[in-house]
Amino acid sequence: MATLLYRLGQFSFRRRGRIAAAWLLLLAVLGVGAATLMSPTTDKFSMPGTESQKALDDLGRQFPQAGGATGAIIIAASQDSKLTPSAVAPVVKEAASIDGVTAALDPFETGSVSEDGRYALVQVQFTKGLDEVTDAQKSAYERVGADAEGLRVEHGGEIMGGKVEVGSTEALGVMVAAMVLVVTFGSLVAAGMTLLNALIGVAVGMAGLFSLTSVIELTSTAPILALMLGLAVGIDYSLFITSRYRQYLTEGLAPEEAVGRATGTAGSAVVFAGATVVIALAGLSVVGIPFLSVMGLAAAATVAVAVLVALTLLPAFLSFAGNRILPRKQRRAAAEDAALGEATEGFGFTWGRLVTKLRIPLLAVGIVGLGALALPVQDMRLALPDAGTAAEGSAAREAYDLTSEGFGEGFNGRLIAVVNGADASSTGAAAKKAAALIQETDGILAVAPPQPNQQGTTVLLTIIPEAGPTAVGTENAVRDIRDRVAGIDGADIALTGATALGIDVSEKLADALPVYLLLVVGLSILLLMLVFRSVLVPVKAALGFLLTVGATFGITVAIFQEGHLASLVGIDTPGPLVSFLPILLIGILFGLAMDYEVFLVSRMREDFVHGADPQQATVGGMGHNARVVTAAALIMTSVFGGFVLLDDPIIKSIGFALAIGVVIDAFVVRMTLVPAVMSLLGRAAWWLPKSLDKALPDLDIEGEKLNRRLEPEEPRKDTVAV
Fold first, then answer.
1. Digit-coded pLDDT (tens) for 545-564
2. Any idea what the CATH number is for the domain that residue 451 is in?
3. Do residues 691 and 623 both lie within one domain?
């Protein structure tokens, strides 16, 4: 692999104009495609194989007029006042007049008025599903009741599910990344070129992704995740290769040879690291949840583009930059054939020696500390977020709070029982029996009168739970209802609605989580065994990854679910974690953890193979790569952390979990626990049975074969000028 990438790097260096033009042309073509073919993203969740999804599908076929999007307009009179039919009627009439609305139910006719007469709920039914409701229809819905004097009118329901908007938050992360690059490189040219290379890669990936929205259904969170990951890994991968290129320049290699060596060695690690991220993200498809598969594949595609850009466009940019890639001080030193910069011992060597000296105490403190941080995981709850966790002041949150104030939280989490039978008589009888059993279920406040379709073969039962959509009591009630109605003859009865669907999503993901974690850990052991030709190094890496995941989940649960220090990240109402966060976090953190593992340990192996004793190899690996890994981790953290500033609770929690996960893995696990363990294991760290050694292919990630092949004719020169 290293030899192939060596040639690719040199080719891109020599053909810099063509390579740069090819990428810019591809960006332009995809940009035009995105502008002309882009379709709106969706917030629809599909859960094939679950009871709630089956019921929704049946509803669309048997009762289409009730299968569209729904809205709930909450009306409140002023303090010490009561609503009257004449005051509410204009609001109902205005809602019913919206294009695409089949019905707006008068609360005085349906009994949706609070006991004190101050609050009323207007149920609004659209003909089309949420994805097909136009912006004009939604705007008209949001304007209903704007002229109602003396009344407070708020608009809720699934129709208010908004798309995630990304504004200046990601720009903040890019700015921090730029500052880190300037400090790391000491050169504006090197920092700017690395950042530009990553931004082009992200732009190509995102343009390609949006070009495909005309043929694939893309969830609104998928582009955000793709942007988040593509930007972070794009900067990091360019940073790794540029740092190795600068090192070779300061050692006296000619620029073309230096870029070939850098692409062959650091580029091999980039390919491996990128492949692990892509495999882990693409592996989300095995869970069997369409929206999660789309998110994983979209992010994986963006990461793959970032790898290709780092291996081809970056060498071309390095050719354009010439010796300006080095600070002036290093250029003068290189002209005098003095190896400064990366060759000068810095903090990495000092830290490496300290860790090897205090390895036992550091291991004890690190493992116990991460274990303590993981303790809240035992109380982790998963759910799809509802409007109760939306940002304060948002329309959906205002409607949720006002509904809870007037009727109770259960009115925000309505359930729907779909009763399907062969004829009207048997279906009606089954529906009455089901309604009676459901009403007797703990945690259920009320069951609305049955709503049959025209043929009477499908009946809807609207169920009001006592607690909110994500409450434990509501989850228990859903399970109890399903058990109770399972034995009713004469009809098929299924429970659905946004609340039931969210519970099904969470249960399916919770069941898939251990399997996916085992798959990822097993994959990490196998891949690292191929890379490092060792048994203990992969096991150590996998155990470190488990520590990272446990501590990250623990901190996230403590803040987002239990509310500790929640105000620091803009969370005003703690609640369960979004159901797909754990499995998504495992997939992403796995790839990022392997990034740092490869860049640190590959240098340790390289020094050990060339004759250094285990302690020297450990210190050398830390000394040469600690600065780069530190910069990479800070960049990752800043990019992910920028998304914490968004109001959307899903993106906020994903950004926070990834940011804190990178900090823990890079600084605690990889830069502290890993060298401590490597120092403790000594030569045993590199043990591999001979039979297994012969069976495993040699990927040559660290470029050992390439170095042996090139060493006799290694070109050197007095300056690094191009």
1. 999 999 999 999 999 999 89
2. 3.30.70.1320
3. yes
